[in-house]
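Hey L., structure's done. Input below.
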Amino acid sequence: MARKSNDFDNTWKYLLEEFFQYFVAFFFPKIYEKIDWTKSHEFLDNEFHQVIEEEKLKKSLVDKLVKVWLNGGKEMWILIHIEIQNQRDKYFSQRMFDYFIAIYQRFGKRVASMAILGDPNKNWKPSVFEYNNLESGVKFHFPIVKLMDYSKKWDELRKCTNPFAIIVMAHLRILEAGKDV
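Output:
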């Protein structure tokens, strides 16, 4: 029997909550270096749910909002979106922007958005939302990690001691097997 997307989402949600520091170190090492890991981080599920409900935004189970402290003492909220699906979502970048704006408007906090894409389409890598109207507009960038990009780094993954290397290998094997992700 194929594994349901919801099971996959819940697994990623659990892994993020239990191993957040490893997650950031593995997928976003430049961001990892900017966070003060001597201070604890805090998941802001209630705050995130408020934004989703108030703004009537579509919510994925694996959207997480986390408060961290940067080196130098500044507070930063990080929006992490993990998209596990089998096809392109033409509204993905806009949804990332909508979350970013909604959190900023509701709480007035600095937000850093980042995404993990677990779909099998190697060429789908949305990382920008751009909107222009007459002479005004906005261009919103966010870093992404495409799990399929690791398929050519198998030896590197095997040698890595970060638990997310094993998680990525398992994810890739599930995609290879053609399971419902």
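The beta strands are 42-43, 63-69, 75-83, 111-117, 128-133, 136-141, 144-146. The chain has a mean pLDDT of 84.

-- N.
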